Amino acid sequence: MTQYTLKDLTRPSGGFAMLAVDQREAMRFMFSAAGVKGPVTDQQLTDFKVSAAKTLSPFASAILVDQQFCYRQVVEQQAVDKRCATIVAADKFIPGNGIPVDSVIIDKSIDPQAVKRDGAKALKLLVLWRSDEDPQQRLQMVDEFNRLCHQNGLLSIIEPVVRPPRCGDKFDREQAILDAAKELGNSGADLYKVEMPLYGKGSQQELLVAAQKLNEQIPIPWVILSSGVDEKLFPRAVRIAMQAGASGFLAGRAVWASVVGLPDTGLMLSDVCAPKLQRLGEIVDEMMARR
């Protein structure tokens, strides 16, 4: 059985420059916020995701897609560039308390062998981390996910995202990110996708110290995501995180959020988003060359 390695997801430099288009209801909200009139349809989301895959995958080392809106269409339309690996989101979002993602479980409708036959090389699992929820349940889910991946020759990517506790109002995001990394950083996954400390704000030194603390807690390769980080700050965030020990990024919003809901999506993705992704890839290569 073919067993993929992290090199299958990297640029020749060994760094990760990966694009995410697996946002689901969050992307629908982004279309609405951009002023799209009327209900945002599933087809609008699918069209945007497939267009993004076609236009941007030549500049990405891997692309993360979701089964709900675009995986099948991306495969059938051969939307992903041959040099770009495909990662499939294997998380099922459960809404509640007025938010689209209140809890997460492994999506049992994902067939690892089928996605592997279609060319996918990795699966990704979102893990919501709350200080007042049972760590054993999180660890058991991650362990089950890792086994699912590895028994089928696929790479395992986990994405712990911190949330305020369900009870009480005290929430230290920065400490929570560190606590999540301490708990899950050595849980058997191949790659750890993490939120950028301080939302990428603050001085270079403040960010570097925060990212170094994170690096101390994650003994496996790790990359940053861009949710919550201003797209203008994201290139610097990638540079600083990599200086601290990260190996690149797996990001969506910092690349394509600015063109959501605009006319001529294909043209905007090509003219506005592709140069951003190219530049981020150059930063990854530059920082890997310094190692």
Taking strands numbered 1, 2, ... along the chain, how are they ordered across the largest sheet?
9-8-7-6-3-2-1-10
CATH architecture annotation name: Alpha-Beta Barrel
Number of strands: 10
Q: Can you identify the CATH superfamily? A: Aldolase class I
Q: Secondary-structure element order, as H and E?
A: EHHEHEEEHEHEHEHEHEHH
In percent, how helical is the residue content?
40-55%
Strand content: 15-25%
CATH topology: TIM Barrel
Envelope shape: globular
| Alpha-beta classification | alpha/beta
Distance between the termini: 33 Å
- CATH hierarchy, class: Alpha Beta
Low-confidence stretches: none
Q: What is the makeup of the main sheet?
A: 8 strands, parallel
Radius of gyration: 18 Å
Q: Tally the structural domains.
A: 1
Mean pLDDT: 96
How many H/I helices?
A: 10
Subunit structure: Homotetramer.
Protein name: Sulfofructosephosphate aldolase
Keywords: Carbohydrate metabolism, Lyase, Schiff base
Organism: Scandinavium lactucae
Which descriptors would you attach to this protein?
291 residues; alpha/beta; 10 helices
Helices and strands in order, then pairings?
Blueprint: E1 16-20, H1 25-33, H2 42-56, E2 62-65, H3 71-76, E3 85-89, E4 91-96, E5 99-106, H4 112-117, E6 120-129, H5 135-150, E7 155-162, H6 173-184, E8 191-194, H7 204-217, E9 222-224, H8 234-244, E10 248-251, H9 253-256, H10 265-289
Parallel strand pairs: 1-2, 1-10, 2-3, 3-6, 6-7, 7-8, 8-9
Antiparallel strand pairs: 4-5
